[in-house]
Design brief:
The protein is mainly α. It has one domain: Helix Hairpins (Orthogonal Bundle). Helices cover 61% and strands 9% of the residues. A two-stranded antiparallel ribbon has the order 1-2. α1 crosses α2. The longest helix is centred in the middle third of the chain and has 27 residues. It is elongated. The protein starts with a helix and ends in an 8-residue tail after the last strand.
Length: 70
């Protein structure tokens, strides 16, 4: 995410501490936050996919997704 967008999120947060945000500002902040979180999650997914585990027998394998217990 671009630095300017992060700065805008921070600016809107500062404004919200001083006064109520307008409906347009609330929508803008929500959209920027969603974009930020989506980017963060994608980056974290890529980091986790790059992790390799070395077993005691010396074999190396990729990190596996946790299985649901349902």
């Amino acid at each position: 995410m671009e630095h300017e967008k992060i700065e805008r999120i921070n600016e809107l947060t500062r404004i919200s501490r001083e006064r109520e945000l307008t409906a347009e500002e609330q929508v803008e902040r929500a959209a920027l936050r969603k974009e930020y979180l989506d980017g963060f999650r994608e980056n974290m997914r890529q980091v986790l996919e790059g992790i390799k585990l070395q077993r005691p027998d010396g074999t190396i394998e990729p990190l596996q997704k946790k299985q649901d217990k349902h």
